[in-house]
Amino acid sequence: MIWGCTTTSEVLLKTQLLPFVKKCFRTTKRCIIQDDSTPCHRAKKVRDFMKTEGVVQLTRSGNSPDLNQIENCWYLMSKRLIRHKLSSKQELINTIRKVWHEEINEKYLKTLIQFMPRRIKADIKVHG
User: Fold this and answer.
1) What are phi and psi of 97, to 5 degrees?
2) Residue 4: its pLDDT value, please?
3) Tally of CB atoms within 10 A around 95
4) Do 90 and 117 share a domain, yes or no?
């Protein structure tokens, strides 16, 4: 994860997550957010904020990266970053943006979504 500063969860939720969610889901009144159930995502302050804003948090195990599509995105990103000899913070930022926009695009994300039923069936088969 790349952060150029430290922020409080409330600032991040109010200025980044909530506006993004409202923009993406402006045609529906119900929004569900999936996270990896880490303690920072389950803090009382975060839960209270989400409840106040009408956002439902989908509870799932953090030990199921195969069912969390963003893990595929981070894996692809790390594979692409390893290929580059980056010598500055700006080169890193530029490369991340390039990979995100050129490779982690709508087509890639749709492919991940299309394979989700197969992953769920495989997970159920293994874990019962």
Assistant:
1) -60, -45
2) 45
3) 16
4) yes
77 and 56 within one domain:
no
Strands (E) located in the chain: 31-34, 55-58
- The SS3 assignment for 125 reads helix
Residue 81: give the domain boundaries: 64-128
Closest CA to 73 of 33, 101, 94: 101
Judge whether 50 lies within some domain.
yes
Reported as a single tens digit per residue, the pLDDT across 34-83 is 777 777 777 888 888 888 888 887 776 666 667 778 888 889 999 999 99
Q: Which residue has the tokens 């409840």?
A: 51
pLDDT, tens digit (0-9, with 9 covering 90-100), for 39-53: 777 788 888 888 888
Place of tokens 């929004």: 31
What does the mean pLDDT of the chain come to?
79
Domain check: are 33 and 81 in the same one?
A: no
Clarify whether residues 53 and 75 are in a common domain: no
Q: Which residue type does 93 have?
A: I
Q: Give the number of other Cβ atoms within 10 Å of residue 101's Cβ.
A: 9
